[in-house]
Records
---
Amino acid sequence: MMNRGAGIALALAAGVCPAALAATAEIEAVYPAAHSLYLELHQQPELSGHEEQTAAKLAARLRALGYQVTEHVGGTGIVAVLRNGPGRTVLLRTELDALPVEEKTGLPYASKVRAKDDAGNDVGVGHMCGHDLHMSALVATATVMAKSRDTWHGTLVLIGQPAEETVSGAERMVKDGLFTRFPRPDVVLALHVANDLAAGKVGVIPGIYDTNADSVRITIFGKGGHGSAPHTAIDPIVIAARTILALQTIASREVKPGEMAVVTVGYIRAGTKNNIIPDTAEMGLTVRTFKADVRKQILAAITRIANAEAQAANAPRAPLIERYEGADAVYNDPALAAHLRSALVGALGGEAVVTREPFTASEDFSVFVEQGIPGLYLHLGGADPQQLAAAEAAGTRLPSNHSALFAPDLDPALHTAIAAEVAMLRDLLSADAGTPVPSSGAGTPPKS
Ligand SMILES: [Zn+2]
Ligand SMILES: [Zn+2]
């Protein structure tokens, strides 16, 4: 843990202005509690949709700070509202869930939790995506804001969202009245830690932040028979093999060069025994794109190719093609991003705020933005700076989110998360009531 003096000395060394220095002192005041909450949450992770204890912990802390807290919004979600006079309404979100990953970091506070997943399998459970860091930062930020009501005015809405990892929690919260039962925000904010940027820094990504993600399942129908008599059967494995190869030509031959397009066949399942031709073959795909029109083009091409390959093989029926899960790309309002970037530079210093390229990951923060609300999803550095530099020099990468080895450089990352959140909230909640939020006009990217 960084002590208060060290934090201020660091801020001074970074050339931070006196107002930012005062902010540093108030963050140091809440930091020990944030650090211990992190350790507690890290050792008690819960799977998506089952975040009962996690949600209850956050709810109790926020209630004690004077927030009006509602639990069980969209499942295990929580909404905490602090009204502080006229002004804007700003929402800050954290996720609540952990992953079915057995932690192998070897840290003294590593998770040892095991649980049954929804399919009944016994799995290790770990906060290997950093949502424990986001939660600890949010409670610390909530504390700073509650204790400094003379520095801002308006309404602060903090949410703990369940089931981000299954990209379902945001939609469930919205359907359960997040924007009708509670004050509708003028701006939505969130951040995410990752190991590709040094702890102590934040990354601003104006415009498209990450990808559209579509999960597609294709079931190919053939006609089973004896492996020695292929002429009596229609082999779905061969159809699947041809389909997989043809799918590879979508990104390489059909999509305009330079456009983001990933088509991955992540699994294929067929057959039971070497001398039996099975009736069916199933494959699962993930499709990633930045643009809506490219997404549409790829999904149409998958359908066309799968149908045509089945037809070419004289399959008894067309394949079943199901898009069973998906998320839209998160869009950071460019004007809002530029505005908040200045606030972040003021709080963290110019060197700590960098511009980043979009990610090929995806997540459901997009659901909030798509309600027509300008949003910023901030990238938070989580890597130990020396380890990151060594990895970059060696041409390797540090363990990424979801790895059993993922471990943020806690003290600088958590300090920076709190400082960034407080800076963005204070900035947005210092405007007079009715002042428009800096925005490029659309909550979602222009549909081309
Ligand atoms: Zn994740
Ligand atoms: Zn995550």
---
Amino acid sequence: MDNKNEVVKKEEEILAFWKEKNIFKKSLDQRNQSPVFSFYDGPPFATGLPHYGHIVPSLMKDIIPRYQTMKGNYVERRWGWDCHGLPVENIVENELGLKSKKDIEEVGIEKFNETCRGVVMKFQKEWRATIERMGRWVDMDNDYKTMDLEYMESIWWVFKELWDKGLIYESYKSMHICPRCETTLSQSEVAEGYKDIRDISVIAKFELQDEPKTYVLAWTTTPWTLPGNVALAMGEDIEYALVRSGDEKYILAKENVERLMEGKNYEIAGSVLAKDLEGKKYKPLFPWDYSEFLKNQNTENLYTIHLANFVTVEDGTGVVHIAPAFGEDDMNLGKEKNLPFIQHVGYDGRFRALGGDFSGMEVKPRGSHTKTDEKIVSFLEELDRVFLSEEYTHSYPHCWRCETPLLNYATTSWFVAVTKIKNELLKNAEEIRWIPAHVKTGRFGNWLEGARDWAISRQRFWGSVMPVWRCECSEMRAFGSVKELEKASGEKISDLHKHVVDAVVVPCGKCGKDMKRIPDVLDCWFESGSMPYAQVHYPFENKEKFEKSFPADFIAEGVDQTRAWFYYLHVIAGAIKGSVAFQNVDVNGIVLAEDGKKMSKRLKNYPAPEEIFEKYGADAMRYYLATSGAVRAEDLHFSEKEVIEVFRNVIMLTNNILRFYKTYEDTAGEFTAQPKNILDRWILANFKTLLSEMTLHLDDYDIMRAARPIEKFIQDFSTWYLRRSRARFKDGDPEGIALFGHVLREFSKAIAPFMPFLAERVYNEAGGSQESVHLEDWPETEVHSQSRESRDLLEEMETTRKIVEFGLAKRAEEGIKVRQPLRALYVTGSALRDEFIPLVKDELNVKEVDFSKGEELRISLDTNITKELEMEGDAREFIRYVNQERRKQGLTISDRVKLYVNGDFVESLRQHEKDILKTTLADSMEYKSGDEKIVINGKKGTFSIIRA
Ligand SMILES: [Zn+2]
Ligand SMILES: [Zn+2]
């Protein structure tokens, strides 16, 4: 079996061991009287499969709680599932073949919702498999679901708290809606779906009522809104020009004349002041009858020019076409100037009864979003109302779920008045520690600064409902618990989903008529933002438990959650508790394919996580991710090659160290914290430095900085400590081996949060005293002070290694093999204490090291090879041949041999016979010819090895 599979096999055995022995539970139980370290888990949807975007935060959510547990805290880790909202609804729509909201209403909300309930946990098994396999410890048996009655009841309580504080209101505003999902979206949902698209922009000609052939030019990127035009807006401070071209005259911003009239025959006929045009009337663009749309409205101001301060000269003409039904500025101006309102588009994104063949047409169909705009433009062209139309690329919002282009649309929605409490939210946010720190004032701070009121109502079906009942007489009542509703309605309530509670009526306290629930459901971020309360059914149960665990000490999620989960947790906690919801937060970046593109199942441009687990094990992936910028909000280009490097340089190297220890563990003596050997003292000091560095960074929640030094330590351990200790361990060194074992066990504790499998293996095989390393305490460490002695020791060893490194380079330069002993090494600019000198001598194979004063570190070698040195070199070379042959024959350290050898180098061997016998584990050496030919430093001969 090759090494790779051995690691994977071992991990699987350890997984089974944890499960069988309930190690996770034991690690919690033994701390259940300890201080609480509070961790909240952000709930994922179980309707998609887990991917790297979940694995990175899962890793962070494993490392910190494991560490805090080892530090002596009780860290509950409870899994949650996000069950509601558009992702689930969209799956069910596809499953049931429903194309629109009307289709859903036709099959019935009950059937629709019950189907949603059925598919929500679709991939639960796959999630469990992946999360367990990656070694994350989290309680998935005792999970919470946002669709549970208890959870939903707490949501009502949160809502009612906001309601009672006057933070919930209903308003008619310009919003973004998804015409396919037929619902409003929140600011953060809208922000998530911006994409660059090519649209058609048009400059339309608005002819002045009393000046025929004089046109005001106005620009728009949404030609479909032109039928809703009721006014034009000009800027008071903008200079306009009157331009003559042919028999027509145009009014537009002076600054834009050159650009827009390019290629046309024209002359500037004069300047125009916006003020002079204010109140002037123009002719409608479309020849249609608008009387139905304008019923009962003030039409006095229809098709009039107004002044407005939001008009600029950038991009357009310096004149803005105003359609109050489709834009915030437009709507505000409409209110200010008492303009009529033409809502010619339905909530489903289709034209209402318009002229021509436009009625019923989708204004921005998904997949062919410019189709309708093109039709509008050509219709206007036929009427000679188009000055210019061209393609225009801009960033446009799309539905984050179904990718339909959103519409800016005036409609009624319910809001949380975030702006009312913004100052307090900003103040609270100062308490939060972010990793990386820049998110605090950057992405999060900026978002919070620019926060608007939160649109929480959705005109959908599968979600927590708005617990508000309203009467015809406009009386309203919000309910904060099941009991309250039961009492008011006289009905038994066992489910709070829409299809159930919509049927519940409540008598109006004012007029006695039936109050009905307002039909909207809640934004599902309202639910995930309420998880601190709802996961424990607060305040109906677990009051004390909640108080102990609020706010969270730690949470972790991706950078995309800055404007979502992090933000909503913060808003709700600020509003109802006047507090932060979390104190420390680790933010991960996005994992991309190696080529920097999005990971795509279709393009197969990345290895699936399961594939990585299968080939290199979970620890290799964990360490790779933990040491990457991915745990500090940076994008990561996932590289399998780099996982392989970790596998080799961290996992396999540690296994080799462990194997070496196992060979000699029986010879271990008593452990002493004050060992004599310089290498022992050094590895101990080195480990203490590693530990204090890791502790420092873990206390700061900085996973990457805590993880990185581990690899260096393993390298030091293997390529210096073991390399230089091999001979003494072979010869028997009870104190050294005991220390070796001690360092391994302590090391296993330090890596336990990062590489829980490797840690378990090392701990168990190096003789850990507990059932599992994960039941251990974090090793004692002095974080801030390092003794002068150990600092000197580490520094001097560093110099020693530098001298060795230079010496080896010099040998290579001179073409002298390391096996050939040399008389002396001369070191200028540095000196070592006596106990370090043998390390240099052995490693560089020199008889003497000579130090002298000087500026910088320089070294040179005495390269004169005397007869005596040459003979020693021959002997060393012969030893290498013999040991190579021993390996070839599969001999182990318990097999003794007899040697037969003859040739031109025999004299050299005679001189060093004792040494040869010892190092090759031979009983005797006879100078007779053997079967194998060899050449030693140019001298020919033969030899044989016979098992004794
Ligand atoms: Zn949509
Ligand atoms: Zn009433």
---
Amino acid sequence: MRVGVSSLLSVAWRRTLDLVFPPRCVGCRSFGSFLCSHCLATMPRARPPRCPVCWMPVLSPAEGPGDGGVCRRCRDRPRAFEAARCPFVYGGAAREAVHALKYQGVSAVAEVMAREMAECLEEWAPQAAALLPVPLTGARRRSRGYNQSEMLARELSRLSGLPVETGLLVRRRGAPPQARAVDEAARRANVAEAFAVRQRDPLPGPLLLVDDVMTSGATLDACARALRGAGHGPVYALTFGRED
Ligand SMILES: [Zn+2]
Ligand SMILES: [Zn+2]
């Protein structure tokens, strides 16, 4: 109870800070909005041709057309999720937006980011029945006061009308945050056992995982694997950006 109240207060405090300090673009620092129209327009979009599963750019003809464009990585190691999509490549102002949301607690930027994700979702139409933010460990959530993926999911819920499901998927232990220096195999091993699913009746319909950034896809894959193992799904994933 105490934790709940303090994290609520922390969110309220952040929202107050957002209000007290006038909106400033996270990309160019100009005043007026949290992401100005210029920065938004110049953010690198994650446009096709891309792997229909992980949305990684398909670099050479050898990487795909014969297999419906599925990239080598997804062919070698089938994903537990059906497909992932995102509106942006993680770079430029898109990176600044994620950082502002994750490390500076600029909660209002979630609204702008979710709007772009909602557009992407509408176009993609995976027929999801519920949104599942990728959880943080309890300790990290307490120290940060919020889960940035949950903030995105809440805004996305407001825009799409889909319910947010937060009690189902839990994070068992901490993996280093997006550890850049760690290679893919190590990262995958780190997150493979990180998620668990609370026992309950399977949710009806496809589920949509929501996260800020997709890197190798190992985190989303581990979440999807845990959900599928517990009889839920199929599972799709939507992030704001992805590292190409
Ligand atoms: Zn700007
Ligand atoms: Zn792929």
